[in-house]
Design a protein that fits this description.
Layout lengths: L7 H22 L13 E2 L2 E2 H22 L4
Antiparallel strand pairs: 1-2
């Protein structure tokens, strides 16, 4: 199977998703700046909802980049 380079759109989109995911993790765990997420308790069961959102963003980053490489024309 051949390899096709992803389009600029996919590269920019996956880069933005990764930056947002990293920003959420840094905001929650490191506390380097005042929280931009607010001090809102956003829990899903016993899990922090922001961590789940960041993990979904990381998965979407990988999946979209994978699909951009595997499929031609994306």
């Amino acid at each position: 199977m051949g390899w096709t380079p992803p389009s600029k759109f996919i590269v920019i989109l996956t880069g933005l998703l990764m930056v947002f995911g990293i920003a959420i993790f840094m905001d929650i765990n490191l506390g380097l700046w005042p929280s931009f997420l607010g001090n809102v308790a956003f829990n899903i069961g016993t899990y922090d909802g922001w961590v789940i959102i960041a993990l979904i963003l990381f998965f979407l980053t990988w999946f979209l980049f994978f699909m951009g490489v595997k499929l031609t024309g994306i």
